[in-house]
Amino acid sequence: MAKIDETDKKIINRIQTFFPIDPRPYAVIAEELGLTEDEVIQRVQNLKRDGIIRRIGGNFGPYKLGFFSTLCAAHVPEDKVSKFTDVVNGYPGVTHNYMRNHKYNIWFTFIAESMSIIEQNLAEISERTGVTDILNLPATDLFKISANFKVK
Amino acid sequence: MLTELEKKVVASLQGNIPVTQRPFLELAESIGISEDKYLMIVEELNESGIIRRFGATLKHQKSGFKANAMVAWKVEEDRVQEVGRIMASFQEVTHCYRRNPAPTWPYNVYTMVHAGDKATCRAIAATIAQRVAVDDYTLLFSEKELKKTSMKYFT
Question: What single DSSP character describes residue B28?
Answer without folding.
Answer: H
